[in-house]
Amino acid sequence: MQASLLGRLLGRSCVGGLVASLLLSSWSAYAELQGLTESELSEVDGAGIGLVLENFKFAHGTDVDNGQIFKIGGLKSTDGRDVEIVVNKLYVAGANSNYGETLGPVNLGRLVNPFKIDVLDGNDIGVPNKAVLEFAAPEMVDAALGYDCLSAGAVAGSGSCASRPASAELPNGERPDIGLQMNLVVGEDPSANINIHAQSAVIDGSYLRLWGDNARKQMVAQFKLNFYTPELSINACKPDGSGCGSKILMQNFALELALGNELQPMFFDVDGNGHFILEIAAIPTPQAGTIGSDGLRSSSDGAAWDFYEDYYSNSEYRSNLTIGNLSVGDRDFGSARVEGMLIQHLKIETRDLAP
Amino acid sequence: MTRFLRTVIGHAMALSAGLVLVSGVHAEMSRLEDGDLASVSGQGGIYLSGDVSINELGGPVQNSYFGSCSDTAKKCGARLAYQLKENGGWMVLDDIRGKFSFEGLTLKVRDIDSGFGGDGELFNRDVLEIGLPNIVRFDSVEFKVATSSTARPTDPGFQQTDIFSIQMQGDVMLEGNLLVFPTGSP
Predict the structure, then answer these.
(1) β-pairing, A336-342 with B90-112?
(2) In this prediction, what percent of chain A has a pLDDT beyond 70?
(3) Does the distance separating the beta carbons of B149 and A273 come in below 8 Å?
(4) Angle at Cα A73 formed by Cα A239 and Cα A246, nearest 5°?
(5) Which of A81, A87, A282, B162 lies at a CB distance of 3.0 to 4.6 Å from B146, suitable for a disulfide?
(6) Is B151 on the interface with A (CB under 8 A)?
(7) B2 touches chain A (CB under 8 A)
(8) A36 or A327, which is more confident
(9) What pTM did the predictor assign?
(10) Does residue A209 sit at the B interface (CB-CB below 8 Å)?
(11) Where are the domains of chain A?
(12) Domain ranges in chain B?
């Protein structure tokens, strides 16, 4: 296989001659090299690419006077009027940005635990005999080594997030402030202004895995989104930014969303009419007689029982949302939790609103 | 053979002739051991500035659907369609056009053995550093996200739903360094 690849490369161009002469000229050093056997070669793991952003700062927005425009259009309201979103400001910057007023640099990813693009062996992650393409944020670490995911003053050993908050030793921090300020214009209505800010945000443990399904001949995915922030705020102001209404403040906001898993992957499709379809398949029902009428393992087929036991008890398949404290203006609503959500079946299909 | 290859080969021939000519002084040179060679690392860098434009005035295809940007009845942006399922419909990035200008995109190899809150010392390796250009100027950059029944808009039965469009103009702040390195244990 290697020989034929080399042969093809050599046959393709005259560079082959050059390569051959280089190989010959390095003959004297050849004796020092050792051959790699086939079995040794098969142990070599496809190394992925690690990505770290150092001193990163991103900002864009709309400032018509200075020729800056950032618009999202082409949307329609349910009554058929055009909706235009004018993004006044979108930023990703260092912590303590005071809602995007003072943008400082931030590091994203750690050298020892970076963002990664990798091809995984499906056999290791429950997708048999497939190569799986993965885009991943820094991995979660052991709680004895990591940092609390929510606290902006977390110290080592306080939690399982790898990204560190800004501190005296690490002024940039690895948790960005992220914000989006936008004006929403519906038809001729005066625009509404909405601002969303997340402070010291962490997405550790998030990933997107993509592969192909043989039976359905379709692209499938598994998406895990972890999003932690000590403060997520939403408010609405007058279109010119002066005078704002009550602020919806979510403190210690933690979202752990699991869309698709190795047993129920997420399918993407566009149907014949050009509509986008996203589907999370239902878990197959047990074959007749494999699960006993009393539901106990002793009266069931062991393998089938274990399969469903794992499916219903595996916390990796479940989504959680926790809000430490929710307040609107000066009213406190206390904490809210939605835990252990399991998606049994989901199908989202876009539709044309325009007649 | 491309002109590039011909140039490369030309240089290589000149190089080998040079090697023959300097063979007389060969005896005065000392051999570099493998270990010494391994510690030599490239110190150069690349600095890039310029602009990239996509279909600013219109693409090369001229037909019933695509045309010049001055013709309002036709689309002039680039189109990228990808199919997610065999015999299924197509996801489309449509009407991609505009110009990105940047100054000072840099590329170099950097050895990191300190900093990063203690991570640098643990890491102690080389990375490829892409220095972001601080400001990227977007000139009438726009694209649409759509779904379509066929790959080409000229195919029979073509039907398309535009989901949303993005329009960007002006200076975008993009500061920092992107560090790229292999992970895993080869």
Answers:
(1) unpaired
(2) 85
(3) yes
(4) 30
(5) B162
(6) no
(7) no
(8) A327
(9) 0.78
(10) no
(11) 1-44, 50-349
(12) 1-30, 42-180
